[in-house]
Amino acid sequence: MLNLGILISGRGSNMENILKSIKSKKIPINPAIVISNKVDAPGLKIAEKLGIKTEIIESRGFEGSREAYDKKIIGSLTKYGVTPKNGLVCLAGFMRIISPQFVKKYKNRIINIHPALLPSFPGLNAQKQALEYGVKYSGCTVHFVDSEMDTGPVILQSVVKIKENDTEESLSKRILKEEHKIYPEVVNLFARKKIKVSGRRTIIG
Ligand code: GAR
User: Fold this and answer.
1) Which among 111, 117, 148, 176 is the best mutation to test ligand 1's pocket, defined by most ligand atoms within 8 Å of the CB?
2) Residue with the nearest Cα to atom 10 of ligand 1?
3) What's the burial of 63, exposed, middle or buried (CB within 10 Å: 0-12/13-18/19+)?
4) 163 near 131, Cβ under 8 Å?
């Protein structure tokens, strides 16, 4: 069975939802390790409660290069069997850019969720960006990670209609609901080897 590593920085609701879905929906993947770059990420406690191993690899105060930091992450993933041959890495609110070396090593095995319909509104505060731009629809995107920010091949997207009285909070809440639907679905598709990448496109099924 494939081994799953989840990388978080904070709340961890996507992580929690993926871990619970693995159990309830019988997704054929072993949740091997949750790694946080922040010592106080609330998601760590949730993972522990669910009986999943956790590691903290603090990025704050880390003096080395991005590549050196990512080597530590790769070391931890490898320790738990999340390898380029037999692993899947899910970024779930992991607020760091991944080095090209990490991406290359785990080619098409690192997945991210972003709270907008990429390529619109990449980067931070995507929901706020969408409201400020005035778009009528936003949503979320699960995509493979490549060496730039939020640019890799799209796997699944879900659309959310923006209401006239939406605030960043209300929109984020509705988008998060969709995130919780499509992220476990992608993990399931990946675990069952149903996702193929052809150039920028993914083929599902
Ligand atoms: C989620 O909304 C996720 O899409 C977003 O951070 C939140 C993490 O929440 N990620 C990004 O903005 C990445 N650019 P969570 O910790 O509760 O899963």
Assistant:
1) 176
2) 93
3) exposed
4) no
Q: Which of 38, 114, 143, 180 is catalytic?
A: 114
Q: ipTM greater than 0.95, yes or no?
A: yes
CA of 93 to the centre of ligand 1 (A): 4
Please give the sequence-ordered ranges of beta strands (E in DSSP) within the chain, or none if there are none: 2-8, 29-36, 54-56, 87-91, 110-114, 137-144, 154-161, 195-198, 201-204
pLDDT digits (tens, 9 = 90+) for 100-135: 999 999 999 999 999 999 999 999 999 999 999 999
Ligand 1 atom with the shortest distance to the CA of 17? 18
Instruction: Identify which of 31, 177, 21, 156 has the alpha carbon closest to the alpha carbon of residue 90.
Output: 31
Closest listed residue to residue 27, CA positions, set 90, 115, 95: 90
Give tens-digit pLDDT for 159-178.
Answer: 999 999 999 999 999 999 99
User: What domains are there in the chain, each with its CATH number?
Assistant: 1-107 (3.40.50.170), 113-205 (3.40.50.170)
114 counts as catalytic: yes
Radius of gyration of the chain from Cα atoms?
Answer: 16
* Mean confidence (pLDDT) of the chain: 97
